[in-house]
């Protein structure tokens, strides 16, 4: 049996090695390392896949969120609502720009933004909502968009973990996550469902004015070479990464299907164990399983993780400290917030290995390792 990894980027590469090597060599032959044809091709293909008017590539997913907030003209003191139960990058950029993060709770089933908590958090200072499509499941966008429209609030989708996920509205219309708000932001970190061989990110929007502004911001605020109309940053997707991503984009649906197959294997295997709450999928969303995150009930998580480690099965906690408890906010700490679901999830969630190259003998071994501990608990 091959060594089990949380994410197997090496064997994914080996499966497409010839295509990738040829594409990288093509970039080397042209020496167009920045904004070359590979970047232009990938951007066009991603826009087509997402069915969105504009895609703006950038250096990473964190930059994508920052550029989005800059493009919307958010100013210090403006409040930005985001779930606490997510990776810190979502809130980090809020603080970096001098904006005020407002943490809300998540739904206990989807781990995505809770609508009641969102409604209660809105004030006259609220300027943006950042729903996170966590672990690969869509946030409840129809309700979020309705609330945002009622209060004239911008919506920035954090789609770093759910590219390829479909959201279906109550009228039957289906859209990709990241394309429903005013701006969508995503990451191409190597472990993502659509991962580069280094850092990378992108923004998408159907608003040309926003697209033009984000394009300028990502390139030093330039409207033309050496003409800087706005304060910007230096955030570019290089041509080699774009060439790799363009190949992988064609395989994204099959990659997500492979993840879904792994997830179903786990879910079926643990169905009879009351100590394990497996991921659920709401009728409005598909699930692309960036992570397979389950909850342990009445089980010592640290002992569970140590047991798996003794069997050479990796297991990760996403995320051990929620945003409202992080020290980075200093005197502005939000530790007093009563985010009941977030606080309840933090000590019980854990994620099992899931990626596109998993084999059935690996899955069987992982399941047996989990069961052997649970049955003794």
List strands and helices in order, with pairings:
Blueprint: H1 9-15, H2 17-30, H3 37-50, E1 54-58, H4 61-71, E2 79-83, H5 89-96, E3 100-104, H6 115-121, E4 126-129, H7 141-151, E5 154-158, E6 166-168, E7 174-176, E8 183-187, E9 201-205, H8 208-218, E10 222-224, E11 227-228, H9 239-249, H10 252-269, E12 276-277, E13 292-296, H11 301-310, H12 340-345, E14 349-352, H13 360-374
Parallel strand pairs: 2-3, 2-4, 4-5, 5-8
Antiparallel strand pairs: 1-9, 6-7, 8-9, 10-11, 12-13, 13-14
Helix pairs in contact: 2-9, 3-9, 4-5, 4-8
Largest beta-sheet details? 7 strands, mixed
* Shape, per Cα inertia axes: globular
By CATH, the architecture of the largest domain is named 3-Layer(aba) Sandwich
Number of helices: 13
Q: How does the helix and strand content classify structurally?
A: alpha/beta
Helix percent reads: 25-40%
Strand content: 5-15%
Query: Strands of the largest sheet, in order across it?
Result: 1-9-8-5-4-2-3
Describe the protein in words.
With 377 residues, this protein is an alpha/beta fold. It folds into two domains: 9-249, Aspartate Aminotransferase, domain 2; 252-374, Aspartate Aminotransferase, domain 1, CATH 3.90.1150.10. It has 13 helices and 14 strands. It has a seven-stranded mixed sheet with strand order 1-9-8-5-4-2-3, sandwiched between helices. The two termini are 28 Å apart.
In short:
The protein is α/β, with parallel strands linked by helices and 377 residues long. It has helices at residues 9-15, 17-30, 37-50, 61-71, 89-96, 115-121, 141-151, 208-218, 239-249, 252-269, 301-310, 340-345, 360-374, and strands spanning 54-58, 79-83, 100-104, 126-129, 154-158, 166-168, 174-176, 183-187, 201-205, 222-224, 227-228, 276-277, 292-296, 349-352.
